[in-house]
């Protein structure tokens, strides 16, 4: 564990807490893509199956349980409790366009052709693109609530910090995992446009509105 | 297995 990874994990944790607080406090999931949230729930459940087969540390297990349970809770809030506030007219990204290529890629390019390993690889690839329905929704409506933009910033920052963690591990442990690195870089690049808007607008106290 | 080291990440 190095400082970049810890910061990345905390940023990830903060993103999810911000999202849940936004939904709970405003009693609304307006502006949040249910499709992205479904993809994230799929990411956590397929990646953390090793929770039952491989104990790494208490920290690791607690975080895994947190990510799986909060992603299920988010889906419950969006599709059951606050269903009336879910903005499904703007949440129209076809997730099959992501799921099919990611499944094929996971079956073809992996470290080991075993069920757990293929699922781990699938989750890494899926995570890299899972935010696309959300970014598509923001671009479609042309704006995002400030709290939603904080959520997106923390979620994007988490994988960017992981890239520094991988650079650190390469230099100091001689370890690298190309699948994680390539997917992590793709994931971070997808946020770049949003990062630019966040820094130039939200930090200066303006709402996140896309240029017309 | 070397790649399993990455599985301790989240």
Which structural traits does this protein have?
heterodimer; A: mainly alpha; two-stranded antiparallel sheet; globular; B: little secondary structure; 0% helix; receptor (chain A); membrane (chain A); transmembrane helix (chain A); transport (chain A); ER lumen protein-retaining receptor (chain A)
Explain what you see.
The complex is a heterodimer of chains A (about 210) and B (about 10). Chain A is mostly helical. In chain A, about 70% of the residues lie in helices and about 0% in strands. Chain A is built from 8 helices and 2 strands. Chain A starts with a helix and ends with a strand. The mean pLDDT of chain A is about 95. Chain B has about 10 residues and is low in regular secondary structure. Chain B is rod-shaped and about 20 Å long. In chain B, about 20% of the residues are buried. Classes of the chains: A mainly alpha (about 210), B little secondary structure (about 10). The interface of A and B includes residues 9, 12, 63 and 165 of A. Chain A: Keywords: Endoplasmic reticulum, ER-Golgi transport, Membrane, Protein transport, Receptor, Transmembrane, Transmembrane helix, Transport. Chain A: Belongs to the ERD2 family.
